[in-house]
C-alpha cells in the first residue's frame, strides 16, 4: 500500500435527501472521528445524488474490448468509470452512506457499483474463480431505513453492498446502523469496532 493510500479516505453519499439525511449526518461524524484519529487523513468525497450515467451498449462494448485495442471514442466512454476506479484504488478507507430504498440501495449507488466493477481493474478471473484486486482496504457501511431493520432478512441493501465489496477484494467491512446513532453522545468509530468484534 502506498503512502497516499494510507492517508486517504473515500466518502460516498447516495441519499436523495440533503437536509435531514441521517446517513449524511452519521457518515460526516464518522469521517470527523477518522480524521481526529489520523490528522493527516485526506478525504475525497463523491456525492452520487448529483447524478451518475448508467452503463449502456457502447460502454459495455468498450469495457469488453482489450485495453490495447480500444479506440479513442471507447476510451472516452470509459473515462468517467476509470476515474471512479482510481478513487477506489487510491483510498485506504471507504465510507459508503446509503439509505434503504424499497429493501435495496438507491439507483445511483447501483450505477456506481456497475461503473467500478471492472475486470482487470477491480477484479480478475482466475482458474479458481473471480479474485478481488482491492485488497487491504477498510470499508464502513452507514445504513439507514425507515422501516426495514438493518442487517435483517428484509435488508437486501446491506447484504448486497457487502457482497459487492467482497467481490472486489474488500472484506474488512463494518456496518453502522445510522438510525440508532445519537450524534450528540456516541463515538461512532469505537461502537463500530465493538460491533465488529462481537
From TrEMBL:
Role: Also exhibits azoreductase activity. Catalyzes the reductive cleavage of the azo bond in aromatic azo compounds to the corresponding amines. Quinone reductase that provides resistance to thiol-specific stress caused by electrophilic quinones.
Catalytic activity: N,N-dimethyl-1,4-phenylenediamine + anthranilate + 2 NAD(+) = 2-(4-dimethylaminophenyl)diazenylbenzoate + 2 NADH + 2 H(+); 2 a quinone + NADH + H(+) = 2 a 1,4-benzosemiquinone + NAD(+)
Gene name per UniProt: azoR
Protein known as: FMN dependent NADH:quinone oxidoreductase
InterPro entries per record: Flavodoxin_fold, Flavoprotein-like_sf, FMN-dep_NADH:Q_OxRdtase_AzoR1, NADH:quinone_OxRdtase_FMN_depd
Keyword entries, A-Z: Flavoprotein, FMN, NAD, Oxidoreductase
Quaternary structure (record): Homodimer.
Superkingdom classification of source: Bacteria
Record note on cofactor: Binds 1 FMN per subunit.
UniProt domain Flavodoxin-like fold: residue ranges: 8-182
Family of the protein in this entry: Belongs to the azoreductase type 1 family.
Hydrolase in keyword set: no
Organism placement in taxonomy: Bacteria, Pseudomonadati, Pseudomonadota, Gammaproteobacteria, Alteromonadales
Species this protein is from: Agaribacter flavus
E.C. number(s) listed in UniProt: 1.6.5.-, 1.7.1.17
UniProt binding sites for FMN: 15
PANTHER family: FMN-DEPENDENT NADH-AZOREDUCTASE 1, FMN-DEPENDENT NADH:QUINONE OXIDOREDUCTASE
Cofactor: FMN
Enzyme class: oxidoreductase
Record-linked Gene3D superfamilies: 3.40.50.360
Keyword Ligase: no
